[in-house]
Amino acid sequence: MAVLKDGHGGHPPRTVTAPAAGDVRIRVVGTDHCLGERRGSRTGQIHQVPCAGAGVPLYSLAETAAGRWRIVSDHPDYGPGCSGIPSGGRIPAAAFEDSECGDPSRVEEFALEPYGTPVEGYRIVPVGSATPDSCVTVTGDRAAAWARLAQAPCAADAAGQLFDFDRRD
């Protein structure tokens, strides 16, 4: 089994794809998982799911300002929305979830910060969160499908906090 130089998983190294406006598949670095939701669930909770089955919802990136992004979702059952952190990010371990865009109580803008030299992945950092120094993080068993994503303190080693953005055709 190959081990990534950064120690974030036991999968062969991949070329990390930088964020760019347009349709993307958001991949958890060092795994075979991408972001997605359970079809039929109304929670909007985002999980890591096997990339082969990650099609609900479809994601795209929209730049809102220099270096600031909105993660737009298109759910086959509920329509368009935005990924975000509820309650302005005031609650530690708040869920990373999809919901309708424009709710002023949610953090819906993110910095996608490169990590490592050379870049090993990108952290998704909630902009304006009431919990400073927080990152979107895979929680629980980071190797398991359906592990949920939530706001958590940014870790020095970025374990469970690195993503890349594969262009989706």
Structure characterization notes:
- With 169 residues, the protein is mainly β.
- It is built from no helices and 12 strands.
- It has strands at residues 22-28, 33-36, 47-50, 58-65, 68-75, 79-84, 97-99, 110-115, 121-126, 134-138, 149-153, 163-167.
- The N and C termini lie far apart (30 Å).
- The model is unreliable at 1-9 (pLDDT under 50).
- It has a 6-stranded antiparallel sheet, with no helix packed on it. It has a two-stranded antiparallel sheet with strand order 2-3.
Supply the helix-strand structural class: mainly beta
The global form is globular
Strand portion, in percent? 35-45%
Strand line-up of the largest beta sheet: 7-6-5-4-1-12
Euclidean distance between termini CA atoms: 30 Å
| Mean pLDDT over the full residue set | 89
Radius of gyration: 15 Å
Helix content percent band: under 10%
H/E element order:
EEEEEEEEEEEE
Count helical runs: 0
Q: What composes the largest sheet?
A: 6 strands, antiparallel
* Extended strand count: 12
Low-confidence residue ranges? 1-9
